[in-house]
Write a structure and sequence with these properties.
Layout (H helix, E strand, L loop, with lengths): L1 E3 L3 E8 L3 E13 L4 E2 L8 E6 L5 E7 L2 E8 L3 E9 L11 E10 L6 H6 L2 H72 L4
Antiparallel strand pairs: 1-9, 2-8, 3-4, 3-7, 3-9, 5-6, 5-8
Length: about 200
């Protein structure tokens, strides 16, 4: 994505609890003379801030022009990940555009291939099996989180449907009572004018 030098950009990641999140990024600065983004942005860094659904800051750190950040969510919900460059130029002259390449991996457990190659065949199978078991646990945790969200959504939908039903009943009673009052008023008017 593109951003200004002093501009903050945020993304929202909906995460289950106890989930590892790893992000890799790289900043490129716009060069006015070449009319292209430079491969690297020396001297430019990136503030990365991660907030939990309750608003608590989980991570706030300054990184270089490219880097890796990671955190583990301890609450389920929408986590806000914000990026802002550490440019010290004044806003009036900090009109340079930045391109940020971002790769976020959620719940991924990395398999160390060098450790696998160093061990014999039995150990390799055992390490790969452990890796698969970790992935199964992550998928199971993700499904539990989605199930919780679905239950919350269903409960909200049922409450809304119930409120709509009661609102319709109240509207019907109001319309019937207004209709009866109008008929009574018209009847009394016609009797008073001796038209009936």
């Amino acid at each position: 994505f593109h951003t200004g030098e002093r501009e903050e950009k945020c993304i929202i990641e909906d995460l289950p609890s106890d989930t590892l999140v790893v992000g890799n990024y790289k900043i490129q600065r716009w060069d006015i003379h070449k009319h292209d983004f430079l491969e690297s942005a020396p001297g430019l860094g990136m503030f990365v801030t991660v907030s939990t659904p309750s608003g608590e800051v989980l991570l706030s750190k300054l990184y270089g022009p490219q880097g890796t950040f990671s955190f583990t969510s301890y609450l389920s919900g929408e986590h806000i990940i914000c990026f802002q460059s550490n440019s010290t130029r004044f806003v009036a002259i900090a009109g340079s555009k930045l391109r940020i390449h971002l790769d976020i991996r959620v719940g991924e457990h990395f398999l160390d291939e060098s450790a696998v190659q160093a061990k014999d065949e039995v150990d390799e199978v055992s390490v790969r099996l452990e890796h698969l078991i970790e992935q199964i646990h992550h998928v199971s945790k993700e499904q539990d989180y989605e199930r919780e969200r679905e239950e919350k959504f269903r409960k909200t939908s049922e409450e809304t449907n119930s409120n709509i039903l009661w609102w319709a009943i109240i509207q019907t009673l109001i319309l019937i009572s207004v209709g009866i009052w109008q008929i009574k008023s018209l009847r009394d008017f016609f009797i008073a004018k001796k038209l009936v």
